[in-house]
């Protein structure tokens, strides 16, 4: 029997942006494995490469060299179209600034990406997910009619409704007050537990990092420490 593919298997990932004398080495050889279902916090000082690593791991940015498999897909070897398809089925992203479409209701924000991906029953699934994040009575509201915490709930519903194997959250509580941020953290952990997804959270919040199973710290484009599984 073979063991299941890890959620992330990265070896010697590098990222260099720009060229010639303007080239900047941003990631300098990242070896990183994440098991299915693991909850990992990614810490590190500003400019250490956290967002760049997330961009590479989510397939938004292509690594300059190295190997990368995400939920069994060989991201490093894929063409643009195949990569876009592979990302869609595997990855959900939650960002600090919510990034909801202002002209769409909460329901449309969650359902439309699934409709575009050809997922059946997109509206029903979106509605169920919005109920699961506590917004069953807000599905027809537009983002401007929702608080920051509510908007982040919509963003979490949008990320999780397609049932991705991995959820990436980049400073998900960074725009929220402490109490609202705490509620959003609880929700993210609860939805992860219900769906079995693997969760990677970029954060400056040491309390949030402490609640993750594993803390990986970046410094100057390299992994400086990794607590591994506790
Ligand atoms: N397009 C680019 N061209 C050149 N350098 C870049 C580019 N994008 C990012 N960088 C540099 O790469 C480094 C890592 O940036 P990154 O945003 O990944 O760090 P970070 O750890 O996420 O920081 P923060 O916590 O402030 O968000 C920084 O020095 C940044 O200036």
From TrEMBL:
A matching Pfam family: ABC_tran
GO cellular component: membrane protein complex; plasma membrane
Family annotation (PROSITE patterns): ABC_TRANSPORTER_1, ABC_TRANSPORTER_2
Domain (ABC transporter): residue spans on this chain: 8-230
Keyword Membrane: yes
Molecular function GO terms recorded: ATP binding; ATP hydrolysis activity; transmembrane transporter activity
Keyword Cell membrane: yes
Range of residues in the leader sequence: none
Keywords: ATP-binding, Cell inner membrane, Cell membrane, Membrane, Nucleotide-binding, Transport
Similarity comment text for this entry: Belongs to the ABC transporter superfamily. Macrolide exporter (TC 3.A.1.122) family.
Protein name: ABC transporter ATP-binding protein
């Amino acid at each position: 029997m073979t063991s299941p593919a890890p959620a992330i298997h990265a070896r010697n990932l590098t990222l260099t942006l720009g060229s010639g004398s303007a080239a900047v080495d941003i990631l300098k050889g990242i070896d990183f494995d994440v098991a299915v279902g693991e909850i990992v916090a990614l810490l590190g000082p500003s400019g250490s490469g956290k967002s760049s690593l997330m961009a590479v791991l989510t397939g938004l940015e292509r690594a300059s060299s190295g190997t990368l498999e995400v939920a069994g897909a060989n991201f490093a070897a894929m063409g643009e179209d195949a990569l876009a398809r592979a990302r869609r089925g595997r990855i959900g992203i939650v960002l600090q600034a919510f990034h909801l479409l202002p002209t769409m209701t909460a329901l449309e924000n969650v359902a439309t990406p699934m409709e575009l991906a050809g997922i059946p029953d997109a509206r029903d699934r979106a509605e169920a997910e919005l109920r699961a994040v506590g917004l069953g009575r807000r599905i027809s509201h537009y983002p401007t009619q929702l608080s920051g915490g509510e908007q982040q709930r919509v963003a979490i519903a949008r990320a999780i409704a397609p049932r991705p194997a991995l959820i990436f959250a980049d400073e998900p509580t960074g725009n929220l007050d402490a109490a609202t941020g705490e509620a959003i953290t609880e929700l993210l952990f609860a939805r992860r537990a219900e769906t079995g997804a693997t969760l990677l959270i970029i954060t400056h919040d040491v309390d949030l990092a402490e609640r993750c199973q594993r803390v990986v710290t970046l410094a100057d484009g390299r992994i400086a420490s990794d607590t591994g599984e506790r």
